[in-house]
Design a protein that fits this description.
Layout lengths: L5 H20 L2 H7 L2 H10 L5 H22 L4 H22 L8 H15 L7 H19 L11 H25 L6 H17 L5
Helix pairs in contact: 1-2, 1-3, 3-4, 3-9, 4-5, 5-7, 6-7, 7-8, 8-9
Length: 212
């Protein structure tokens, strides 16, 4: 007997593999269809869970799927895609704050280092997108902080805070790869690692939800 919820995750893996095949073979229509499918499978994984935490993370997954479609459809839709992902991060922030409101300022320090380095490298290449990207980086930095703030906050030492934190960092690293490919080196060939990081990060965040 399969574990409950395993079917959407298996479908998500199949969709991810299909996306890579379509991408490498130049089947653009199939790639566009498959790009949001793994995240939508994670959304299906969360649908049976009836609590506020899961609903917020599900909202973030849905917005991420919209962002996936926009970014895959056309480079001209980069800004709307950026907005969709920004709103997804806001949903995750609200979910994480709902888990703990403790400041945990020491968790902010590595985030500030990461953000500072990222902006230092990307800043000279952003041009007219400088302000939107800076706003986006600020929001994802808050998301990273609030993910890390969960570690040790409830005193249980459970796995869920670590899943949220690892997932948030994977998401942030994939975003930096997207920015590098978009603004610095379009020929960097980062599609495979950034998508693997992105999907793994979303899976970890979805798995961190309260399932009571």
């Amino acid at each position: 007997m399969q574990p409950r919820g395993s079917t959407p995750l298996r479908l998500g893996l199949a969709a991810a593999a299909t996306y890579f095949i379509a991408h490498f073979l130049g089947w653009d229509a199939l790639a566009l269809l498959m790009k949001p499918a793994p995240v939508l499978c994670l959304l299906a994984f969360l649908l049976p869970v009836r609590n506020r935490d899961a609903a917020l993370v599900a909202g973030g997954l849905l917005l991420s799927a919209v962002g996936d479609l926009l970014l895959e459809a056309s480079p001209a839709l980069f800004l709307p895609g950026l907005v969709a992902f920004l709103l997804a991060h806001v949903m995750y922030i609200i979910a994480f704050v709902g888990r703990t409101s403790r400041l945990q300022l020491r968790r902010l320090m590595p985030v500030l280092v990461f953000t500072g380095l990222g902006l230092h490298v990307l800043g000279p290449h952003l041009g007219a997108m400088r302000e939107p990207v800076f706003v986006y980086v600020a929001v994802i930095s808050v998301m990273l902080w609030r993910a890390g703030a969960q570690i040790g906050a409830d005193g249980t030492g459970g796995l869920r805070p670590w899943l949220a934190t690892i997932g948030a960092w994977m998401f942030a690293l994939s975003d930096m790869m997207v920015a590098w490919s978009r603004f610095v080196d379009p020929e960097a060939g980062l599609k495979v690692p950034l998508m693997l990081l992105y999907w793994a990060g979303q899976t970890a965040i979805a798995s961190s939800t309260r399932r009571d």
